[in-house]
Specification:
By secondary structure, the chain is an alpha/beta fold. The chain is 28% helix and 31% strand. The protein has helices at residues 25-37, 51-62, 96-105, 119-122, 127-135, 171-180, 199-211, 243-254, 275-283, 320-327, 349-360, 397-407, 429-435, and strands spanning 2-9, 18-20, 39-45, 66-70, 73-79, 89-91, 113-116, 140-142, 151-153, 161-166, 188-193, 216-218, 224-227, 236-238, 258-263, 286-290, 295-300, 305-312, 330-337, 363-369, 372-381, 385-387, 390-391, 410-412, 414-416, 440-449, 452-456. Helix 1 runs parallel beside helix 2 (51-62) and helix 8 (243-254) runs parallel beside helix 12 (397-407). Bound molecules: shikimate-3-phosphate and phosphoenolpyruvate (PEP).
Length: 458
């Protein structure tokens, strides 16, 4: 019998009025990276400080950048092309982006580099990136299992030219080669095959590179991306709120009548997950922006929403788990498709949400396409659920945060594991939910065996 720490989430009657949205993880990570690749000083304002942006900072420091945390901004003294890999080892922890981008960048390291990550990252798909980089001339060796982290990149650069990638496994393979390509001697042409998912992340990469003076050409259908050799230039950059993180706060606001205002938001964003705003409006809530004050106000006049809804999440993968939580409280049918890429994220996210929400009594069924989890369909009656369950986060911050908001409208407290993983992307998650009036506390759960768990006092 073992003890594990869980968060007990109490049922909530209504939200109080204000919270702040954390800054964007993808924007912060991209800005730190582009600043590292520029020779000279860049300033990144309103950056996000969390485990995965720290992983990016440490990886950039490992190749010689100086990254200093000032009050609400970062100073990055970049290295340009002159990597000096003193410690020869980069730990991406759980960040797919850090691992993939540094796998490509260390092709240009003067010394061999070992790149690794945590147990979840070591299980994630990497082979298409290794194959594309090999085609460009890279010399990458897998240390443990073929096609997986950790790796040794023996360096030697890549020339540029053509490489090929699938469009439906991870946009981070494309982002990784794009970021490294300006260091090559010739233009690099990335040909993307089949359905292209998570395009908004490719747009964010191109935007970060162009902001640093790099020329990137993208065909209208996104199937061909050409990156020209060039020198990254130092820049100043302002990061705004993270729409994926906002989805947990906005999602909670969708579950209770009332008016809630969120700060640190820009209505204009390249983030695909800005779609949370359209989803919530389609359900019937009112959302207003004040771009002078960077505020977003959500007005919810109903205790539940009714209708027949379908959303295609192909370009907003990271809010798929949140949508499952919100959709559980809709009266009618709530379908999400286009989420196949999420099976390759930190957990098989659709499977995880279907299994955990089923424990709560939600009528949710997975939707398969070509034999893989692609979405889900929920039939709800607009009511809450009994709750009183022990729920697993599957080791994934986004599953934890989604189950947390689903728990707010259960009649009995749920116990959720994995709460420290909010530090991956949303370190003040509990502070912001406390501001909204949510009550939770840490408890021990006695784990008798996998099928039998019972809450106990902390
Ligand atoms: O480049 C990025 O910052 C990301 C790209 C996306 O990955 P996939 O293309 O694998 O979905 C996204 O899901 C991930 O959370 C962050
Ligand atoms: C999956 C995520 O990021 P990454 O792919 O960079 O690990 C995430 O933010 O949930």
């Amino acid at each position: 019998m073992s003890k594990r720490k869980y968060i007990q989430v109490s049922p909530l009657a209504g939200l109080t009025d204000q919270a702040a949205i954390p800054s964007s993880k993808p924007e912060t990570q991209r800005a730190i990276l582009a600043a590292t690749l520029a020779r000279g000083r860049s300033i990144i304002r309103n950056d996000l400080r969390c485990v995965e942006t720290t992983a990016m900072k440490n990886a950039c420091r490992a190749v010689g950048a100086k990254v200093t945390e000032a009050d609400r901004y970062l100073i990055v003294d970049g290295v340009g092309r002159e990597f000096s890999l003193g410690q020869r080892m980069i730990d991406a922890i759980g960040s797919g982006l850090v691992f993939r981008v540094f796998t490509a960048l260390t092709c240009f390291s003067p010394t061999p580099a070992v790149i690794t990550g945590d147990a979840i990252l070591r299980g994630r798909v990497m082979a298409p990136l290794f194959e594309a980089l090999s085609k460009l001339g890279a010399n990458i060796e897998c240390i443990a299992e073929n096609g997986k982290a950790p790796i040794v990149n023996w360096g030697g650069g890549f020339e540029g030219g053509r490489c090929d990638l699938p469009g439906n496994v991870s946009s981070q393979f494309i982002t990784a080669i794009m970021f490294a390509a300006p260091l090559a001697k010739r233009p690099t042409e990335i040909h993307i095959h089949g359905e292209i998912l998570s395009i908004s992340y490719i747009r964010q990469t191109a935007e970060a590179m162009r902001h640093a003076g790099i020329e990137v050409d993208i065909s209208d259908d996104f199937a061909t991306i050409t990156v020209h050799p060039g020198e990254y230039q130092p820049f100043e950059y302002q990061v705004y709120g993270d729409y994926t993180s906002s989805s947990y706060l906005v999602g909670a606001a969708a579950l209770f009548k009332g008016t809630t205002t969120f700060s640190n938001v820009s209505s204009v964003s390249l983030q695909g997950e800005r779609a949370i705003v359209d989803v919530i409006r389609t359900l019937g809530l009112k959302i207003d922006f004040d771009d002078q004050k960077h505020l977003m106000t959500v007005v919810n006049e109903k205790s539940y929403f009714e209708g027949d809804f379908e959303f295609d999440a192909s370009d907003y993968p990271n809010i798929v788990p949140t949508l499952a939580a919100i959709g559980s409280f809709v009266k009618g049918r709530f379908r999400v498709v286009g989420g196949s890429i999420t099976r390759l994220h930190k957990s098989p996210r659709i499977k995880a949400m279907v299994e955990e929400l089923t424990k709560l009594g939600v009528d949710i069924k997975p939707i398969f396409r070509d034999g893989v989890y692609d979405g889900f369909e929920i039939h709800g009656n607009g009511e809450g659920y009994a709750g009183g369950q022990v729920l697993s986060s599957w080791g994934d911050h986004r599953i934890f945060m989604s189950l947390f908001i689903a728990s707010l409208r259960c009649r009995n407290p749920n116990h959720l594991d994995g709460y420290s993983d909010v530090n991956c992307s949303f370190p003040d998650f509990f502070e912001q939910f406390s501001r909204l009036g949510v009550q939770f506390r840490e408890v021990n759960v006695l784990k008798v065996d996998a099928s039998q768990e019972e809450p106990a006092e902390a």
